[in-house]
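Escalated from tier 1: thiamine diphosphate holo job.
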Amino acid sequence: MRELTYTQALREALTEEMERDPNIILMGEDIGAYGGVFRVTEGLLARFGPERVRDTPISEAGFIGMGVGLAMTGKRPVPELMFMDFALVAADSILNQAAKMRAMSGGRVKVPMVIRTQQGGGRGNGAQHSQSFEALFTHIPGFKVALPATPADAKGLLKSALRDENPVMFIEHKLLYNTKGPVPDGEYIIPLGVADVKREGQDLTIVSYSRQLLFALEAAETLQREHGISAEVIDLRCTVPMDIETIVESLRKTHRLLITHESHASCGVGAEIAMRVMETAFDELDAPIMRVAGLDVPIHVSKTLEEVVLPQPGAIVRGALRLMNGK
Amino acid sequence: MYERMVLIRAFEEACVQLYMEKEIRGSFHPCVGQEATAVGACFALNPDDYMTCTYRGHGACIAKGIDVNAAMAEMLGRRTGVSKGKGGSMHWTDPSIGLLGENAIVAAGVPIAAGAALSAQLDRNGRVALTIFGDGAINQGAFHEALNIAQLWKLPLILLCENNLYAEMTPLAKSNPLAQVADRAKGYNMRAVVVDGNDVCAVYDAVREAARLARAGEGPTFIEARTYRLLGHMIGDSESYRTKEEVAAWRERDPIKRLRAHLAQAEGVTDAEFDAIHARVQQQIEDAVKFARESPYPDPEEAYTDFWI
Ligand SMILES: Cc1ncc(C[n+]2csc(CCOP(=O)(O)OP(=O)(O)O)c2C)c(N)n1
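Tier 2 regenerated the structure:
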């Protein structure tokens, strides 16, 4: 299979879907002439023209609100938030408008809009450019929420998102753009809301997504090599819909669950997964569920501090050992 | 136009009654006194032109052609309502008449209408989008962002500000430093006009011209329509922020009274003809209330529908 970067895979998904569906309109800051600050939309302006690849003023509330209007009138807008942190200046357009139109209108209108953005830390971008907000969009009903970790998933999930009838928060990670991986040739899509077992194992189940999944895989490698522990690693891929079934399936074999995500621990997706597992599969658990997540503090810039705030592979290994040793 | 204005007034008055009797729940912001703005604007548009408005938008929706029975059923939270009882007073939405929603968030409808205008521009289908908002909305970020983009991209958008002098309980002069609201458009190099919002013909002419320019690719127009809400911001408003004299003076300029006087004088419409109109409207409202009351409430299972498929 050919190898592509995450960026190339995303660009391929956009290109193929824009070829297929003339209603797809990209909008955002520096996405056209400049090609996007993470280069995802490079070349798309030349290919699809300025009507469909639109550079906007720095007006997140404005152009995402316009995305709602476009979507309600038959278009498929794909506004890009340069950094997820900026979702907060457009919070009304996203949370009160896009998420609610369909229900408030009794189904008379739909908002098929994909908000593309990237989040996460690890680059020293500081507290206003490193946050991860998937829990917020998981909490407010109305969106589907995708967080691909690999190039193949990035392409397949984005293609699904661009065919969905609902608003989708499509959340990339700034430190994944240059990662490489195999991407199938030809047409394929990956449905939203289906988790993927990225590594099979017997002793415990580790659930993660986005960049943290790579840390989970690294930790699983260490656990095997240095401790003889076989970890199964599940990539949730979407927090909405949330595929608990695949996790429970794995627990029937391993009976131990560790959840790890980069975003803050409190009221995070890990808490939600744990609760749902308790509600549906408490009897499968041989040990309390373990969580390894971001500290509940703003994300500091200095490398030594940022690495304390964001959970590193070593923390996952330590968590897994505690889980296995029952203390 | 007269009949539609009377219909709006009668609809709102019936709702005031139903609200007092607790048959209507939640928020209700009557547009009594602002009927000329709603009717003048919507009658100047084509049926397939887009529109967004606010929680005070019953007038505009009725002027645009919403089904009055379904609207009343929505007020009473019934399954037969425009939004199956899920939206209520502040969220009437009906794409079949181009209505992309009232909106309960001040100014949120402005970028949505701008998006619809962009949609029309891309499809080259000659449609325009009208967005109606209050004088309070001109201080919101979303409003400014949308105006800037609309002018930059020459969108076929008509921005109609219903300047009724108050934002909730705050008088206009306490919330913005402009001598006149329409001056807001200057900062965006946008065409702006001021009209008497209680003169249905003046509003009609202004919107008609704005729509003509928009369809011709001349971009957006900002229209300030000066009007007044004769009732409080919502039911239960003590109206301590304005004087009885002020309200009485505006009652003299009641847009329905004015149009009636004009029609009687200039067109020779007789009292009997007016009576017939009022009787027709009365019947229509009674039928709507009956329809709404006799309609079922949504089933509990409905809570999970119209969502994520
Ligand atoms: C963003 C936002 N802030 C505050 C409110 C509460 N609120 C509802 S109506 C209103 C006044 C708006 O006044 P104006 O825009 O002049 O419209 P009018 O009610 O006079 O028609 C306020 C402050 C709201 N709905 N949305």
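The mean pLDDT of chain B is 96.
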